[in-house]
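Re: that backbone. Tokens:
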């Protein structure tokens, strides 16, 4: 998903102003299918959401992919059931993290009010959801829901962490298409992401989302890592980032000590991904299920 060819395809397609938002949503589905052939979802929503009190939905503007009903019909149905959407609440409380309906709803989706009030009408039996805070506006989210129908047997075939990472370039693409970031910034960050492995992205997420003033040694200890040598891979990534943006790393080093913060300016949008090593926050009145805890234990980040 983070290969140069893959990200170039996302960039070029997102830049096609003749392509409708619905067309780009369909491209997103095809592109994810190409990256993960065993995985497929039946329909999706891409939404700009305003919240208050952290998890309460105030307004939703959505782009639908592969719904037979009209946007007006779907949104009227959803807003009538929004208070029962516990999956959305956990997503808003944990930006940059992907969740399944089974993380917050015990048993089958059909047993819960959100299904009877909304999902049943549109053949929604499964849902992966992830949201990213907009820059400097943490009450606004861009969110994706990847929904499976009753007969979809391929929906469970993907590692949720893979889908979490695969969603991020599309978050940047939608920010660009909605004119919340410039073409130059969008292109720079797609270049910076090209070729990065999950393990390197893990390190970047931890670094960029570290506590204010936290030094590298303290951060290493907080993550259960050795203090010695923890910063070496980050310095390597920093140099690689600077080179990708055409900076003369040798000259910069010769001019004086080059701090890791120099890298942050180039990959600042990774702050949208947040830090996946932080504990998941469960909003008041919401309990994470045994299925969620079992999934967390199975999650392993590989190179």
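Recovered sequence:
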């Amino acid at each position: 998903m983070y290969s140069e060819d893959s990200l170039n395809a996302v960039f070029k397609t997102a830049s096609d102003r003749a392509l409708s938002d619905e067309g780009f949503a369909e491209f997103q589905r095809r592109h994810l299918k190409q990256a993960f052939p065993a995985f497929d979802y039946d329909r999706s929503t891409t939404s700009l959401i305003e919240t208050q009190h952290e998890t309460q939905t105030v307004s939703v503007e959505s782009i639908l992919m592969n719904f037979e009903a009209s946007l007006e019909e779907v949104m009227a149905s959803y807003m009538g059931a929004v208070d029962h959407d516990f999956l959305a609440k956990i997503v808003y409380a944990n930006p940059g993290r992907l969740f399944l309906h089974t993380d917050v709803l015990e048993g089958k989706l059909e047993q819960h009010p959100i299904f009877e009030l909304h999902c049943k009408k549109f053949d929604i039996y499964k849902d992966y959801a992830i949201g990213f805070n907009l820059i400097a506006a943490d009450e606004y989210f861009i969110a994706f829901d990847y929904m499976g129908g009753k007969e979809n047997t391929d929906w469970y075939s993907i590692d949720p962490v893979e889908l979490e990472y695969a969603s991020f370039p599309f978050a940047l693409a939608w920010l660009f298409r909605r004119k919340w970031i410039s073409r130059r910034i969008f292109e720079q960050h797609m270049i910076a992401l090209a070729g990065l492995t999950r393990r390197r992205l893990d390190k970047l997420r931890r670094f960029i989302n570290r506590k204010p003033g936290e030094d590298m040694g303290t951060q290493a200890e907080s993550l259960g890592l050795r203090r010695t040598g923890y910063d070496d891979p980050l310095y390597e990534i920093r140099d690689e980032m600077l080179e990708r943006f055409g900076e003369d790393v040798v000259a910069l080093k010769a001019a004086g000590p080059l701090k890791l913060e120099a890298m942050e300016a180039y990959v600042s949008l990774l702050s949208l991904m947040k830090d996946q090593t932080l504990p998941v926050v469960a909003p008041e009145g919401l309990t994470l299920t045994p299925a969620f805890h079992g999934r967390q234990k199975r999650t392993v980040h590989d190179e």
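The mean pLDDT is 83. The first strand starts at residue 43 and ends at 52.
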